Amino acid sequence: MIKTVLFDIDGVIVYSDKANRKFVNAILKEQGKKELSEKDFQKIKFFTIKQVLEKYLPEFSEEKIKKIREKWSPKYVNFVNHTELNNGIKEILEFLKGKFRLGIITNRSLTTVLDYHKVKDYFEFIVTSADVKEPKPSPEGINKILEKFKVKPEEAIFIGDTIADLTAGEKAGVKTLIFRTTQKEIGKKIERITEFEEIKKFL
Question: Which of 3.40.50.1000, 3.30.420.40, 3.40.50.2000, 3.90.550.10 is the CATH number of 4-15+83-202?
Answer without folding.
Answer: 3.40.50.1000
